[in-house]
Each structure stands twice: as C-alpha cells, then as structure tokens.
Amino acid sequence: MSQDRVMERLLSLAAERFARSREDLKPEDDLFDALEIDSMQALSLLTALEESFSVEIPDYEVQDVRTFQELAEVVASRL
Amino acid sequence: MTVAPEMLDPTRYESLGELLWDALLTFKTETALIEVDRKKETRRLTYLETKREVARVARWLADQGVGADDRVAMLLSNQSRWLICAAAAFHRGAVLVPLDYKLGADEQAALLAHAKPKVLVSEVGMLRRLEKKSLAVPTVLDVDAGWGALPEGDVEAPPRVARTRDDVATIVYSSGTGGVAKGCMLSHDAYLEQLRALMSRFPMHPGHRVFSILPTNHAIDFMVGFVGPFSAGATVIHQRTLRPEFLQPTMQAYGVTHMALVPLILAGFETSIKDSLLERPRWARRLVSVLGGLNELLTTKTPNPAVSRALLSPIHEAFGGELEVLFCGGAFVDRARADLFYRLGLPVVIGYGLTEACTVATVNDLSPFRGDSVGRPLDGVEIRIHAPGVDGVGEVWIRGRTLMRGYLDEPELTAEVITEDGWLKTGDLGWLDASHHLHLVGRSKNMIVTAGGKNVYPEDVEGAFEELEVEELAVFASGFLWPSSLTDEQLVAIVRPRRGNGTQAPSRDAVLAQLRAKNRRLPDHKRVGAVLFWDETFPRTASMKVKRAVLADALRGAPGKELVTL
After folding, report:
1. 3-state SS class at B218
2. ipTM higher than threshold 0.85
3. Measured between CB atoms, does B77 come within 8 Å of chain A?
4. Domains recognised in chain B with CATH numbers
5. Prediction pTM value
C-alpha cells in the first residue's frame, strides 16, 4: 500500500475517532496538538490503526512520533 | 529465614549465571516462558527448551569473544528473548546493562556511550530508531532478524564462566537522562541476597504464572518477573503490548498468579473494578461492599486468597481468578487505593526501594496489612532515620548487602550518597513507627517519582518552558517544597508573570494556555502538574543561576499557596 493511502486512511480514522473535521488535519501537523490528545489516547489510535490495517505495531514504535507523517511512516514500515 | 523447599536456595550459589543455569536443568519439563501478542499465543518454551535457546546465544556470545566482565547491553521490550539473552550473558560471566526501552533514542544513545558495552542486544524497531545516532557498539544482536543466524539446533553450551559473589552482575541506570549518568553497579551477592530475602517471604513454585508487564530492565520486574520465578520453576508470561485493553484478557486466559506493577497500573485496575461494579444493580454493589467487609474480617491477620476468591468471585474473575500477589513499587501507592484492593482480597504488596539498593529495602508483609506504610525492612536490610526532627522525620538511610558497589566511573558521586560506614543516603524523608514500619513523607532532594515509577528531575524539564512569555520560571517537585505525603507528587512550575498589560505581558490565562501547549509536547512523566504564580523576584547567584534552596524556603514559608492545576 502506498504511503499516500496509509496517510489518507490514518487521517480519516483520527478525525472520526476524536471528532475532528478531516479537512483540518494535515500530514505535517503535530498529532497531539491537532487532536488535543495525550499519549494514552494516541495508543488507542494505534490499536484502531492496527485493526484497520491488520498489522501489529509495538508500543515503543510510536514513542518519538509527533506528526501524522511520522505515524504513517511507522505504519507503512510494518505493512 | 529460608526459601521454600521447591525453590533453588540462593545461598548455595555464587552468581546469577550459576543459579539460572541450574534452574534450566532442574525444572526441565515445567513451562518457563509464554509469549502473547495481542490476544494470541506466539511462543511457549519449557525450561529445557529455554536452556537450548540460552545455549545458542551463549555460544554466539562466546564466538564474539564475550567473557568475564565484558558488558552486554539489553535494549529490548518485554519478551522471552530478553530473559534468554540475559541468562546467556550471565552464563558467559558478562556484566548485564539493562537499558530502559521507553527512553528516547537520544537518551539511549547517551547511556550506551557511557556504558561502552561490547555487545548490544536489541530488536528491529529500536535499532531503526538508534540508526540515526552514531553508535560505538562493536557488535549488535538483533533478536528479530538475527535469531536465525545464531548457532543452530542442539548446540552445546560453552563452558560457564565462573563469577564470585563480589563480582559486578549488572549496571543499572537509576536516572541520568539529564546531568550525570548514574550507572549503579550491583553485585551477584546483592541479587542473591535480595532473592533470598524476598522469596522467603513471598515464595513461588512451579505452576505459578507471573505476568511480566513492567519493563524487565526495571529493578522490580528483573527480580519478580525473571530471577524470582526462574529460581522457583514458575512460568513467566510476556505480552508484546501493554495497552490496558490487552492486559485483562491475558490475565484471564492464563490465570495469572503474580504480577509486579506500578501505581499507575493499579489505578487503571481500580477504574476497571469500579466500572464493572457500576454496571451491576444497586443490591449487587451493596453485596460486594458487605462481602468486602467480611473478607477484611476473615483475612486481617493473614491474607487468604481462597477465601477472598470465594467471597468476591466476580471481581476476581475479571483478573483471571488466580491472583495471589500484586507487587507494587517504583512510586508511592495511595493509601485508599491499597485499602480498596485489600478489602477486595487482591493482596497488594507495597515495597519501597531504589536502584541503588537492588530492588526493595522495605516491604509490607501483609501480616497484618498496613496501607499507611511502605512496610518493614526486609531480612538483612538496616534502615535508620538520619537527623530526625522533633516529629521524628529525617532522611531515610539504608545499609545491607543489597546496596550497589557504586556508580560506574563516578567515585565522587558515589561518596556523596554512600557513607564510609556503608549507609546509603536515599534523599527520601520519612519516619519509623513503634513497630518499625517505615512511613515516607517527602523528599530532601528536588525530584519526583511518577506513578509510572520514573524518576524525574525538575531541572531537566525547565528547558521545555524557556520560550514562555513570563519574567521567570522554575520547576520544583511538590514533595520537596511541601513534604507531607508522597501521594500524587507532581512537578510544580513557579511562574513570575510579566508586569503591565497588552501583548508584552500576557494574562495569567494566556500563560496557562502556553504552559498547557508546551506540556502536551512532553512525555507524560515530564509534564508539569500545577502552577503557582509568584510575584517576588527569584533569588539568583552572581552567575544568575536561580538559588533553588533559597527560593524553596521562601515558597515553603508563604501563607496560603494557590496551585492552579494544569
């Protein structure tokens, strides 16, 4: 799957899960700021991503992640 | 005190390598390791099968020239291969350097540079994060990609390299992400003595199932989730993700009997118990409350998990129905929470310790249960209160065989914390009651220990707030400023706002908004919990450094502090 498609699905999932408008989210955004979430909520987003992409991602992989772009790269690297 | 007959007796061994190898030989057909990923089991090994894997890694380490006193660093999330590789390193007489896999890559690289290991054992994702740093580790074992390349099949283990009790077994970093890296050198004697004291009080045996969820590099899990169960032929269960939604299903599926955790996870369990109670009708909730009282009555002198399980089966079943002990340490446990678990017959063993003293120094032995204290000194550990005030409160000092030999390459720092006659100055404030139970009330050092068990130094956090539009800002530990209790200790930002109006002097609300935005970018454990607005100029040295002690005294003396929660 291309990184663009990963990104598209990631942004849609994040918008839906945290009640944001999809158009307001951009790949380069800091996801914690854009979604106003903490790291535990980010882990719940990760679980949702795992289900959506049928992939398993260790928790530590997202420790240094700040932006949607970086999160998409982590997901893509595990596909 | 002696350990249970079915356990290996730690007093008979000279080193962790000798004890662990004997465990692999002794408990042959017992299940040693189970690994779960999300909800499915991915690996299961008997002690004999584990020995085979340990032999492969030991052979590989020998081929790399690893022998006595060579350092082997571990940077791995919780998994069976953590234990396998550690046992192999000890077999080769190496010094294990367990690193915190939850640190940022920068911090990990700095600690690796400090420890100078000969071999680094790690996994694919973590190595990718470290790739960008220039690492000076000569040899790396990637347990994901490199396992297949280890010597194959039923290889004969290389000879075990003998170590004595006085030799260093591990170097464990107690902090050191900012300032000086504090690598505690712990001897084989410290671990074997700690194991003896702990297991004589809380024996394990084959058939026990220990769920290892704290990072194994953490002193508590190293003992409770590795060395302890192995010396008793018990089973260690690992799960690749520690998100709360995956914990309880595993506890249920395997009937977990033992677990080590930190207060943060205990709080999560409490929420889940309360949520499940709320879903029940009122009469059922009242029944649980009555049964909780009855359970308390029946088990006051000695915990009896069987009685508690029979009385409160719905709650126990949520955790698998087999729990015998929850070891809780790493930070302060709220008394009301400890009492609740005890009432429900989920025995929480609260301990107090620090990396410098191996694992635990005092432990609540449940006979009777005391939620207000961190317990009595373990067998072989001396505790005294240094320079107590009229209220009996002073600095907690510890002495015994479990103390570290010192900080790696830091003799001066070591001399600052260990006296010539062998007392470790903990920097924690407390008092001992008539029954020799230790009570902690604050800290004489400016630091907090988070509910997740992480040591945080306020000075390391201040930098994140440098661009704030305020006159001055300093961060303190609440327990250092206002010693009373260590429940909910947090970082407090002392802020002197700019004077005047307009854009040059943002309002308090604007300052708070800026603080919250900066806070969000920090890892959870480094976040500031509250703000105190302060109108006086901070006292400073000639070189313009904040005089922290003077400012702290002024803050302590100030009447009616108004903390704003962030």
Report:
1. coil
2. no
3. yes
4. 10-261 (3.40.50.980), 264-443 (3.40.50.12780), 457-565 (3.30.300.30)
5. 0.83
